[in-house]
Amino acid sequence: MQRSERGFTLAEVLIAVFLLGGGVLAIAPMFVYSVKDNNKSAEMNLLGSLAMERMELLRSTEYRDLDAGGELDRNVSVNGVPYFDISNTGYVIRWQITDDVPRNGVKAVTTTALKRQGRFTRHLPQRKVTFSTLRVK
After folding, report:
1. SS3 of 52, please?
2. Which of 47, 51, 78, 110 stands the most exposed, by the fewest C-beta atoms within 10 Å?
3. Strand, coil or helix: what is 90?
């Protein structure tokens, strides 16, 4: 008896499924890394926006009203004036103003925004963005 029907055998189908499945498994980690990198990029973008927003606020402040002080490594208040902002949940913005750097009549203004490290993220490297500018009288 001669077969007139054409098609694939079970062995051919199994081999094709095996090869296709192996290919999908090989590229699956790339999707995971892609999602992680996209999240990191979005967070760095937000940090940059927060730091730049503070920098623009300080740049729009009159030169004589920029009092020296602040630190970038910890939250500091000088004479009751805070040099940090923690109003954004999960993020800290700090700034430092230094008089007469690099010469008299010039103020160095530096802002930094960083993600607060939580209980489960203390072991991870801290993400932060820093901007600096000089103000002249």
Report:
1. helix
2. 78
3. coil
